[in-house]
């Protein structure tokens, strides 16, 4: 299935079938909890052949940018920060955006994937 994942939104959706949502964790394989993580961790899980016991966000971002090179340097409008547009905080890198929506605005992986799909990612 991973070879048919051609977008970040699809990667998040597919990985979410196996990864239980957990804030402040990129991807973790814990004996007690099972596989847990954030939206970035779910996307990483969907494209990875070997899952280490713990994955940090930086490692996942590098791997995802190798699979989806158009993400490198991409800045996206954050729909949760429109009120801050006058402060120059309206745009974020793709990884910062996903982390912010998941950890700080309680968006689900499906909501994040819906938004990314809407903007062509």
Q: What is the helix content?
A: 40-55%
End-to-end CA span: 18 Å
Structural class: alpha+beta
The unreliable regions are: none
Radius of gyration (Å): 14 Å
Shape: globular
Question: Largest sheet at a glance?
Answer: 4 strands, mixed
- Please, what is the average pLDDT? 86
β-sheet strand percentage:
5-15%
Task: Enumerate the strands of the largest sheet in spatial order, edge to edge or round the barrel.
Answer: 1-3-2-4
Number of domains: 1
Number of strands: 6
SS element count, helices: 5
Element string (H = helix, E = strand)? HEEEHEHEEHH
Describe what this molecule looks like in 3D.
With 121 residues, this protein is α+β, with helices and mostly antiparallel strands. It has one domain. Helices cover 41% and strands 15% of the residues. The chain contains five helices and six strands, in the order αβββαβαββαα. It has helices at 8-16, 39-47, 57-67, 94-104, 109-118; strands at residues 20-21, 27-30, 34-37, 54-55, 75-77, 91-93. The protein has a four-stranded mixed β-sheet with strand order 1-3-2-4. Helix 1 (8-16) crosses helix 2 (39-47), helix 1 packs antiparallel against helix 5 (109-118) and helix 2 packs across helix 3 (57-67).
At a glance:
The two termini are 18 Å apart. Helices cover 41% and strands 15% of the residues.
Topology:
Layout: H1 8-16, E1 20-21, E2 27-30, E3 34-37, H2 39-47, E4 54-55, H3 57-67, E5 75-77, E6 91-93, H4 94-104, H5 109-118
Parallel strand pairs: 1-3
Antiparallel strand pairs: 2-3, 2-4, 5-6
Helix pairs in contact: 1-2, 1-5, 2-3
């Amino acid at each position: 299935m991973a070879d048919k994942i051609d977008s970040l939104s699809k990667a998040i959706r597919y990985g979410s079938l196996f990864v239980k949502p957990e804030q402040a964790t990129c991807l973790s394989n814990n004996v007690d909890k099972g596989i847990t993580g954030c939206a970035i961790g779910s996307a990483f899980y969907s494209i990875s052949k070997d899952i280490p016991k713990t994955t940090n966000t930086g490692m996942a971002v590098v791997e995802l940018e190798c699979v989806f090179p158009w993400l490198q340097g991409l800045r996206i409008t954050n729909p949760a920060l429109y009120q801050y547009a006058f402060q120059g905080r309206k745009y974020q890198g793709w990884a910062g955006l996903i982390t912010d929506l998941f950890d700080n605005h309680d968006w689900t992986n499906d909501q994040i994937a819906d938004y990314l799909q809407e903007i062509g990612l």
